[in-house]
Amino acid sequence: MKKVILLGSSLTTQEYTNELARFKGVKVVGYIDPDDSGNQNTFDNFFQMMDLIQKGDAFIVSRDVITLDFEVIRQMIRFGKHVFIDGFREWSCGEIEEIEKLRNESRTVFQFGNTLFGLPIISSALQLINKPRFIRVEKHGPVPKKGQFDNWIFENLSEEFDLMQRIMKSPMRSISARPMFLFGEDPDLLNVHIEFHNDAICHLSVGRAIAKNTHRFQVYQKENMLEIDLAENQLSESRMSIPTDQLSLEMEFYPDQNINNENRITLERHISPYNARKLDLQSFIENIDKQQSPSSNLTHLLEVADMIEVVCEKVKRRYQAL
User: Fold this and answer.
1) Cα–Cα distances in Å, from 225 out to 195, 254, 256, 266?
2) Lesser CB count within 10 Å: N end or C end of the chain?
3) How far apart are CA 142 and CA 120, in angstroms?
């Protein structure tokens, strides 16, 4: 019997409790909210923290947890506990490398869930993607607060960076980034341009200059273009009605010229529905039993953290006020 302890608010932990009740061999032994001031001493006092860690075999951290100290996670892994975290966490490359080393030594499972990669629309889209040449990402987002540019990029682009890397399946060759100040002294748009060793390109734009409620990926391939509209949960495929080499090249390298092309056919693609949270938890339990590596793990977060560090360094070099 795997003893599970949940970290989060009473509402979110109840949702996890209901899902975990469906699995055999799993018992939720309790929950605690790290953001509740009444529980602060439990996490600040080393001996109380270790007493809590020893009571569970696996820990699930909900996305609404804000104040969970990195040291708590480090001790969980150090003492052989399995960890499931809802969404990515903003850790430095050094911190991620440290807990990955501990995880290797303790042979535990460390899994991230509830990211873009695990959405049904992404699972359906990945079946249609083959050797993409250009990816455009557009997302509406708030203006970054003074002195919080690093956190702003993580909150708005960490999962997009992760998904983009998985789609490209190629190491990065170069990154350039530039904020745009359109309406005042605050950056209204951040443009990130990434080139890969397979000569593919990705361009990401995020900020309030993007239309509200916009969150989409456009993936251009040799003979078609996929649009993944995350805001509307719609997946479409566009291709030319007269497949010739010339038209394919135009679509690949000059995507904007084909938006209203009368020779273009657009089809709505089916999205296979499933309970993403249930699937995440099921895979977590199976990964523990079979000692398998999760589909979203510390290696993926390390790649994201490395990209964010590069982007922040390039931007702050020219715009120190951020």
Assistant:
1) 19, 12, 11, 9
2) N
3) 26
Q: Are 297 and 111 in contact (CB under 8 A)?
A: yes
Whole-angstrom Cα distance, residue 194 to residue 231? 24
Q: Which has the closest alpha carbon to 129: 55, 222, 5?
A: 222
> How many residues are there in the chain?
322
Distances (CA, A) of 172 to 92, 201, 296: 19, 9, 19
Q: According to the model, what pLDDT value does residue 197 have?
A: 95
pLDDT reading at 91 higher than 80: yes
24-35 pLDDT, tens digit each = 999 999 999 999
Q: What is the distance, to the nearest Å, from the Cα of residue 1 to the centroid of all Cα atoms in its chain? A: 31
SS3 category, 8 = coil
Contacts of 317 (CB under 8 A, 6+ apart): none
CA angle 68–72–77, rounded 5-degree value: 130
Strand 201-207 with 215-220, pairing: unpaired
What does the alpha-carbon distance between residue 101 and residue 140 come to, in Å, rounded to a whole number?
Answer: 36
Residues 191, 194: Cα–Cα separation, whole Å: 10
Q: How far apart are CA 204 and CA 206, in angstroms?
A: 7
Structure tokens that stand for 123 in this block? 């699972």
**Token digits for 206?**
């995020």
Q: What is the pLDDT of residue 321?
A: 64
Q: Indicate the residue type of 90.
A: E
Q: How many CB atoms sit inside 10 A of residue 249's CB? A: 11
How far is 130 from 65, CA to CA, in rounded Å? 37
pLDDT digits (tens, 9 = 90+) for 154-212: 999 999 999 999 999 999 999 999 999 988 788 899 999 999 999 999 999 999 999 99
Q: What is the pLDDT of residues 39-68, one digit of tens each?
A: 988 888 888 999 999 999 999 999 999 988
Residue 275 tokens read as 């309970």
Distance CA 23, CA 281 (A): 9
